[in-house]
Design brief:
CATH class of the largest domain: Alpha Beta
Strand content: 15-25%
Keywords: Cytochrome c-type biogenesis, Isomerase, Redox-active center
Structural class: alpha/beta
Domain Thioredoxin: 54-195
CATH topology of the largest domain: Glutaredoxin
InterPro entries: Redoxin, Thioredoxin-like_sf, Thioredoxin_CS, Thioredoxin_domain, Thioredoxin_ResA/DsbE_sf
Number of helices: 7
Number of strands: 7
GO molecular function, one term: isomerase activity
Distance between the termini: 72 Å
Organism: Daejeonella rubra
């Protein structure tokens, strides 16, 4: 009887502790919580704020190559005239998981789909787990791994990191940390680059 009385009087504390435990132990729960925070608009990826003046107009290394889930090799510098949206992520990273729906939505809204490639780079090189993650969530994004070392000007180890390479082969956007990419400014920015 005393235990039942104690539980009733402390139910809100018990629920809070249970909530914290779920968030602590579940990557999906953390991603959902972060996604909810992203919907407030605090983490919108604005093209104007993502342009890194120190990185902008710098060309990427000629050797930077990625391998897709189906074995296709892409050397970015050999494909001038194309725009690349490159996202470095991992399946265990809650902020990466949180921003993935916005990247998927962005990819579906781009007008000139033949002039832009979305390269989702699994930094752990666990291709099978990453492809399974994408399929389970019905994301239409191709998974890649890096075939060559990535220079720190592009990826310094912070997850997630997003880089956009313009049609001339220069870095036109660089953002570290999570962001909501499904916004009007980013859609217009990419559509302008792919004209």
């Amino acid at each position: 009887m005393e235990l039942l009385k104690y539980i009733r009087s402390n139910i809100s504390n018990l629920i809070f502790i249970l909530f914290i435990a779920v968030i602590f132990f579940s990557t999906d729960a953390r991603a959902i919580l972060i996604r909810g925070i992203m919907f407030t608009g605090l983490f919108n990826a604005e093209a104007s704020s993502g342009i890194d003046k120190s990185a902008a107009n710098r060309s990427i290394p000629a050797s930077m190559t990625f391998r897709s889930e189906d074995g296709e090799l892409i050397n970015i510098s050999e494909n001038k005239g194309k725009v690349y949206f490159i996202n470095f992520w991992a399946t265990w990273c809650p902020p990466c998981r949180a921003e993935m729906p916005s990247i998927n939505a962005l990819a579906s809204k781009i007008k000139n789909k033949d002039k832009i490639s979305f390269i989702m780079v699994d930094v752990d090189n666990k291709m099978d787990a990453s492809v399974k993650f994408m399929k389970k969530r019905s994301f239409n994004l191709k998974v890649y791994t890096s075939e060559t070392p990535i220079p720190t000007q592009i990826f310094n180890g912070t997850l997630p990191t997003t880089v956009i390479i313009g049609p001339d082969g220069s870095i036109v956007f660089h953002h570290t940390g999570m962001a909501d990419y499904d916004n009007k400014e980013m859609i217009n920015f990419l559509n302008t680059l792919t004209r």
